[in-house]
C-alpha cells in the first residue's frame, strides 16, 4: 500500500479508495474540496515526490507539479503539500 505524507500534517496509507482525496478524507485530514469531480480546483495540492495516476479527466487545469486530489490515485509513496 502506498503511503501518503501530507507535509507538516502527518501520514496515511492508500488502501484502494476511489481517489487520493477519499483516502485523505477517510484518514481524518481536513482537505479542501468542493466538487470532487475535477471542475473547481479547490483540492489542488503540490506533489512534492512520488507518482500518481489520473483516474478522471479534470476540467480544471493545474500547473506543472500540482495535482487535484479528487482526480488521482498514488502509484508509489507520495508526499503532498497544501497550497
From TrEMBL:
Gene3D superfamilies: 3.10.20.30
Boundaries of every 2Fe-2S ferredoxin-type domain copy: 2-83
Cofactor(s) annotated in UniProt: [2Fe-2S] cluster
Membrane-traversing stretches: none
Name by which UniProt lists this protein: 2Fe-2S iron-sulfur cluster binding domain-containing protein
Taxon lineage: Bacteria, Pseudomonadati, Pseudomonadota, Gammaproteobacteria, Thiotrichales
Stated family: Belongs to the 2Fe2S plant-type ferredoxin family.
Keywords: 2Fe-2S, Electron transport, Iron, Iron-sulfur, Metal-binding, Transport
Listed GO MF terms: 2 iron, 2 sulfur cluster binding; metal ion binding
